[in-house]
Amino acid sequence: MSTTKLKPGEARFPGPSTKDIILADGWDVPDELIMQSYEYMGSEDIDFSYYTSQEIFDAEMEKVWPKVWQWVCREEHIPEAGDYIVYDVGYHSILVVRQKDRAVKAYYNSCLHRGTQLKPADSQGNSANLRCPYHGWTWNLDGTLEDLPCDWDFPHVNKAEANLPEVKIGQWGGFIFINMDDDAMSLEEYMEVIPQHFANWPLDARFTSLHVQKILPANWKASQEAFVEAYHSYETHAEALAFSANNNAQYDVFGDRTHRFVHTFGNPDQTWPEDQTQQDILDKLPSIPDGEILPEGMTARSYAAAYQRKAVGEMFGVDLSKKSDSEMLDSIEYHLFPNMFLFPGVALPMIYRFRPNGMDVDSAIFDLLFLRPLTPGEDPPEAPEAYKIGINESYETVPGIEQWLGHIYDQDTANLAAQQKGFKAAKKKGQTLGNYQEIRVRRLNKTLLQYLNA
Ligand code: FES
Ligand SMILES: [Fe+2]
Fold it and tell me: Which CATH code fits 18-51+203-453?
């Protein structure tokens, strides 16, 4: 053991790193997967008021949400001309519409007559035009005015100019994004390293197989921060340590708006007390059916990856023969500020979004999507509507979800009500973060502050 004193943020759990584990698998992996990018950003407490203050919540409505790129839906949510979807965040409401020429446009969801929302909050459907339900002012899909009833009474309205004000649109990886800031940088630039990293993992070659939406009993930031570190696994998912290596899960910060972790599966945490054989580990891996016999010379990790390669490959008609064990199995999770999570992995192919629930500082809307591989040459099927579960309902009740994953989401979300209440009950008014494992919480807070102070 070296006696050199480590600087803050330099300490790691001893033993093999995530990169060591991935390289030991013996596969060719993209450089982006094993690159490391950690920087110490201070150790001071972060005030709980970020999660509880109505004033900060209101400031976010004014200074964060109207300035950032945020994903609204997948392309396959609105495949046909006239398909629309309404994206709400706090009091902001954006109407996104597929055009006749397949392009996408977005409008502020507010009538130019007396302000009524043109389409109901949180709605989706298909419309030949955009007709206000109050007095019937009607716009074409492209935002030009089609009809102004009793126009004799509105000589002061120039109909040729009464277009619906547009919101900036971005399209990437099969996702549709909006940005309310007319002067926003391009989506590509905003995403920092993500376009380059995901050149290895094209998400437009996936489709939405499942969408679950749940209200969570905590501020939108506390809710998403339950998913940016694996440190909580020691307590919250303790049984999973038998087959997932938490210690030295890798944490990377790539820029102000992007960071990730890589958390390997199929091998135990080094703190796991029991001696287990590779067969024992395989038996505990929830993604592998019971009764699989590990062939001589294979590890549980390599067998589980091979199993998924075959099962997922056959199910979706895709060739996964070049996908490394890590890309098959691991929890590889990127975050794009303010609220998008992207998993490039094959067995864990999730997308998350965390938003304020209306104007409630104490709750959030959590969208969870699974993106499965698209059979080459096929168009994606239309995206399923969100399956909504109540605040106390289990993810295990969701049709189509893998039970073990449902159980993990239940564990993750079960902490949130207690945390939100504990913020308010505190004598010590801030959270104390791990320098390494919780660096992404700190990054999120620093970037939020950049927007709030801009
Ligand atoms: S408010 Fe929309 S037509 Fe009157
Ligand atoms: Fe978790």
Answer: 3.90.380
